[in-house]
């Protein structure tokens, strides 16, 4: 068992307040005029990490003199040929159940693809947690603090995946994603998969992420399981063909070809027919939608948006459906500024979807 401690000579903590320190969103000084900031999450996160490793954490403090924060962690002495380490039991011996669990967890994370991942997150504590999780999974990850840095980084360095926080200073995640997806921007890979990091779990928040061109989302606070599941789903949906990278020709959720093909029982002739009809009729609906939005015809505009949303859902066009759903909502609310602002995204998502569908038909006919 190793003990780690961090000592400071600061203001110290009153004895009756130390029990509050490791609770989420709590502050020893909760007044609005407090001198020292923070969200009250850092120690709660630390406590969670330490306890997941069968450790303990605490603090010793003298008010007015300083504090010593400490944590203890159990380790196994490990040789170069040893199995992955596992937590110790109270008796100091490794239980068979915990050892098996640790080995299975190690194999689960290491059996996936090794990815180069860019993390855009402005909260340093969250950065540390996410980078730690990704490292544990065997990936290489680098963090930046806002959307501007993310875009600038992607202009020069190739990555396989981006984890993008939604709310960031300078430029938020939705704005950064729009730039990344813009074929005119200097970003190297406009189709790089992007997973949103968001504390919001309402359906409309998910729709915003997909409408912006993201491939999915991870709900905060993140966990090893939520990150691993999101990445595994993305790799699986992309039908990875290499050992090291996610297939990046078109974001996987632009077109859920498996669901579409299963719906038509894999009939290649029927698939081609439905694709041709969809690609011929949808632009007509989009022109009608644009016209009714300009004329601010509430019912007609909402109906055309609903038509596009339904058609996209039927063929597995998830991102086109998400944008159409947001436009429908805006039209129903007579929010014409929002509807007009979203229309270029609708065009862009249709372009992505058209490319993905034509590629799929070509592969299907070849097979």
Short description:
The protein is α/β, with parallel strands linked by helices and 367 residues long. The chain has helices at residues 42-52, 96-110, 124-136, 147-154, 173-181, 203-211, 224-237, 257-263, 268-294, 298-315, 318-332, 336-366, and strands at residues 2-8, 56-62, 66-73, 116-120, 140-144, 161-165, 194-198, 216-219.
Task: Reconstruct the topology from this structure.
Layout: E1 2-8, H1 42-52, E2 56-62, E3 66-73, H2 96-110, E4 116-120, H3 124-136, E5 140-144, H4 147-154, E6 161-165, H5 173-181, E7 194-198, H6 203-211, E8 216-219, H7 224-237, H8 257-263, H9 268-294, H10 298-315, H11 318-332, H12 336-366
Parallel strand pairs: 4-5, 4-6, 6-7, 7-8
Antiparallel strand pairs: 1-3, 2-3
How would a crystallographer describe the biggest sheet?
A: 5 strands, parallel
Q: How far apart are the termini?
A: 58 Å
Radius of gyration: 25 Å
Total count of helical runs of at least 4 residues:
12
Count of extended strands? 8
Based on secondary structure, the structural category is alpha/beta
Average pLDDT taken over every residue = 78
Low-confidence stretches: 25-39, 82-96, 98-112, 239-252
The residue fraction in helices comes out at: 40-55%
What fraction of the residues are assigned to beta strands by DSSP? 5-15%
Series of secondary-structure elements, N-terminal to C-terminal: EHEEHEHEHEHEHEHHHHHH
What form results from the Cα inertia axes? elongated
Read across the widest sheet, the strand sequence of neighbours is 5-4-6-7-8
């Amino acid at each position: 068992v190793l003990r780690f401690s961090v000592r400071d000579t600061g203001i110290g903590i009153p004895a009756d307040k130390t029990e509050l320190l490791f609770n989420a969103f709590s502050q020893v000084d909760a007044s609005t005029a407090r001198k020292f900031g923070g969200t009250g999450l850092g120690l709660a996160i630390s406590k969670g990490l330490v306890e997941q490793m069968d450790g303990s954490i605490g603090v010793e403090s003298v008010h007015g003199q300083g504090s010593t924060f400490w944590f203890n962690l159990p380790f196994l002495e490990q040789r170069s040929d040893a199995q992955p380490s596992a937590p110790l039991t109270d008796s100091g011996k490794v239980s068979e159940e915990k050892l098996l669990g640790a080995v299975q967890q190690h194999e689960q994370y290491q059996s996936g693809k090794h990815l180069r991942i860019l993390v855009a997150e402005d909260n340093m504590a969250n950065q540390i947690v996410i980078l730690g999780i990704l490292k544990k999974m065997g990936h290489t990850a680098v963090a930046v603090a806002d959307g501007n840095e993310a875009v600038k980084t992607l202009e020069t360095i190739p990555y396989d995946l981006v984890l993008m926080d939604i709310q960031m200073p300078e430029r938020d995640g939705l704005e950064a994603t729009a730039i990344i997806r813009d074929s005119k921007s200097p970003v190297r890979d406009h189709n790089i998969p992007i997973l949103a990091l968001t504390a919001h779990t309402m359906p409309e928040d998910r729709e915003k992420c997909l409408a912006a061109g993201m491939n999915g989302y991870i709900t905060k606070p993140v966990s090893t399981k939520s990150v691993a599941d999101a990445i595994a789903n993305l790799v699986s949906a992309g039908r990875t063909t290499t050992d090291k990278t996610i297939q990046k020709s078109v974001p996987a959720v632009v077109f859920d070809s498996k669901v579409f093909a299963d719906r038509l029982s894999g009939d290649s002739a029927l698939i081609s027919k439905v694709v041709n009809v969809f690609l011929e009729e949808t632009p007509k609906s989009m022109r009608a939608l644009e016209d009714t939005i300009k004329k601010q015809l509430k019912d007609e505009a909402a109906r055309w948006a609903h038509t596009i949303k339904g058609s996209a859902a039927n063929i597995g066009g998830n991102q086109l459906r998400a944008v159409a759903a947001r436009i429908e909502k805006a039209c129903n609310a007579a929010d014409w500024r929002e509807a007009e602002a979203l229309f270029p995204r609708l065009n862009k998502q249709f372009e992505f979807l058209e490319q993905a569908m034509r590629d799929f038909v070509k592969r299907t006919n070849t097979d």
